[in-house]
Write a structure and sequence with these properties.
Chain lengths: 329, 123
C-alpha cells in the first residue's frame, strides 16, 4: 500500500484512506455511515446505534435468492427477514437500503412478491435495486424491470444523489445471458451513460457504485468478475473517494486500490465457497443446521491508526463471539 | 411404451443411464419400426457447474437430454443470436431433450453461468 499521507483529507488524525478502511460490512447486511462525504461503518451486533456524528447511514443487503429451498437453506425468506429485523433494530434507521441483486432464485412472480413485501418492511426512506443474473436470465429481466426497475434507464441502471453522495447502480448481468463472455459485462451503452453521468460532478464528490457481480476479477474460472469493469473505473479515476459494493459471491471480500475500495457482501440465503476451494461455486454443502446463522453472520472492520492495520472482526448471529483477523497490509 | 411414459413422469428420479438408453433404444425401435441400431438418446449430466461430457458427437436424428443434478438452476442454451435450442431454466433434477436433425457443430452454454460451455457435434 502506498503512503497514506498522499490522500490526507481531514485533520482529525485519520486520513481519508484511513476512513475508507474503517468501513465495515455485515454478513446479513451492511450499514454505512456518511460523515462529511466519507463513509464509515456501523457494525451490526454489539453496537447497533449509528454514530452521533453521522450525516446519514445506509444499508446493503444482497443475494436473498427468494425461492431457493435446498437442505439447510430451506428458509431463505426467514433469513432475509432476520437481516431486515437487524436493520430495523438500528436506533437510527438507515436513510437508504441497497439490494445488490439476486433478489430471487428463478424470477417467479411469487418470489418477487415476497422480496417486495420483506423490503417494504424495512424502516427506511427508500430502497434501490440492481438485478442479479437470477433476476434476469429467465425472461431477460422483464419481470424484474417491471417491479423494481421504475425510474431506471436501459437495462436497469440508475444514479441518484443523496446528501452529497453520488450513487450509481450498474447492471452487469444482462449480458451474461448472451454467452459471449463468461464474466459480467456492462456494455457500451451503459458505460457511455455512466461517463456522462459522472462528468459534471466535482472530483471531491464521494461516489458509491453498486452492482451485482464484482467489478474486479475475483476468480475468472467461476465467472466472478466483470469484463469491462476497467472502463467503468476509468470514469471514476479523478474522484477522491469511490466505494464499490457488490454481491454475487456470497462471501466477504475487500480490496483497496488507489482511491477505490471494493467490497462484496454476504448473502442472506446461503454461503458459497472461497474461490477455488471447491469443485464449483454452488452453495456450500453439508452445512450443519445449527451453523446456518454463523454463515449469515456479521462483520465489523476497524481501522487502527497506529501501524495502519485493518482489523476485521467477524461476529455471528449464532454465538456473537468475535474472531479477529488482520488484513489489508 | 408404458415404461417410457412412466419414466418421463418421474423425471426427478435418478435412473441408471444404461437402463435409460436400453429402454429408449427399444422404444425408438418399436415406434419407428427401425432396427435396434438406430441412434440412441444421449444424456448430458449437469454437475458441479459443468456439462458431462462436455463434448458429445452424435449422428443426425439423435436426441440429447440434459439433466441438472446441481443445487442451482442452469440452462443449456445454443450460442449465437438465434440459438438452435434453449432449455430455459432447469432447476434441480429437471431435464431437457432436444433432437438434432441437421449435421453441424452446436456450441452451447449456461445463461446463468456462461463460463459453463459444451458442444454437440452432429455428423
Amino acid at each position: 500500500m502506498s503512503d497514506p499521507a498522499e490522500n490526507t483529507g481531514s485533520h482529525d488524525g485519520v486520513d481519508r484512506r484511513g476512513f475508507l478502511k474503517c468501513m465495515a460490512w455485515a454478513g446479513a447486511g451492511l450499514v454505512w455511515a456518511s460523515k462529511g462525504g466519507v463513509l464509515r461503518s456501523i457494525a451490526f451486533g454489539a453496537d447497533m446505534s449509528a454514530p452521533a456524528d453521522a450525516d446519514f447511514t445506509f444499508a446493503q443487503v444482497s443475494d436473498s435468492h427468494i425461492g431457493f429451498n435446498k437442505g439447510v437453506y430451506s428458509d431463505v425468506a426467514g433469513t432475509f427477514q432476520l437481516a431486515v429485523s437487524r436493520i430495523n433494530s438500528l436506533s437510527k434507521p438507515p436513510s437508504l437500503v441497497l439490494h445488490t441483486g439476486d433478489l430471487t432464485h428463478l424470477s417467479k412472480p411469487a418470489e418477487f412478491d415476497t422480496v417486495d413485501q420483506i423490503m417494504k418492511s424495512i424502516r427506511t426512506e427508500r430502497s434501490f435495486y440492481v438485478p442479479g443474473e437470477h433476476d434476469y436470465f429467465v425472461d431477460n429481466g422483464s419481470r424484474y424491470l417491471e417491479r423494481f426497475g421504475k425510474g431506471t434507464k436501459g437495462l436497469g441502471w440508475q444514479s441518484f444523489d443523496y446528501r452529497g453522495v453520488h450513487f450509481v447502480g450498474l447492471v452487469n448481468v444482462a449480458n451474461l445471458s448472451n454467452g459471449k463472455t463468461g464474466l459480467g459485462e456492462l456494455g457500451d451503452e451503459q458505460l457511455e451513460w455512466m461517463e456522462k453521468d459522472v462528468s459534471s460532478l466535482a472530483s471531491s464528490t464521494p461516489v458509491v457504485v453498486f452492482a451485482h457481480v464484482p467489478l474486479w476479477t475475483v476468480y475468472e474460472k467461476w465467472g466472478w468478475g466483470t469484463i469491462d469493469a476497467a472502463r467503468a473505473l476509468g470514469n471514476l479515476k479523478r474522484f477522491g473517494s469511490v466505494t464499490v459494493l457488490n454481491g454475487h459471491i456470497h462471501q466477504i471480500l475487500q480490496k483497496i486500490e488507489g482511491n477505490v475500495t471494493f467490497h462484496t457482501a454476504r448473502s442472506t440465503a446461503f454461503p458459497q465457497p472461497e474461490p477455488g476451494t471447491a469443485e464449483s461455486p454452488g452453495p456450500i454443502k453439508n452445512l450443519a443446521a445449527e451453523k446456518l446463522k454463523s454463515v449469515l453472520g456479521l462483520t465489523r472492520v476497524d481501522y487502527r491508526e497506529h501501524g495502519g492495520t485493518l482489523a476485521v472482526t467477524d461476529s455471528t448471529l449464532a454465538d456473537g463471539l468475535p474472531a479477529t483477523r488482520e488484513s489489508g497490509q | 411404451v408404458g415404461i417410457v411414459m412412466h419414466l418421463s413422469k418421474e423425471h426427478a428420479m435418478k435412473f441408471n443411464i444404461l437402463f435409460f438408453v436400453a429402454i429408449a433404444s427399444m422404444a425408438a425401435a418399436v415406434w419407428a419400426g427401425t432396427p435396434a441400431t438406430a441412434p440412441s438418446d444421449v444424456k448430458v449430466a449437469i454437475e458441479n457447474f459443468s456439462y458431462e461430457p462436455k463434448t458429445v458427437t452424435i449422428s443426425a436424428g439423435t436426441s440429447v437430454t440434459w439433466v441438472n443434478s446441481d443445487d442451482v438452476p442452469h440452462t443449456a442454451t445454443g450460442a449465437g443470436d438465434q440459438p438452435a435450442f434453449d432449455s430455459g431454466a432447469l432447476d434441480t433434477d429437471e431435464k431437457f431433450t432436444f433432437t438434432f436433425s441437421r449435421p453441424g457443430t452446436y456450441a452451447y452454454y449456461c445463461k446463468v453461468h456462461p463460463h459453463m460451455t459444451g458442444v454437440v457435434i452432429v455428423k
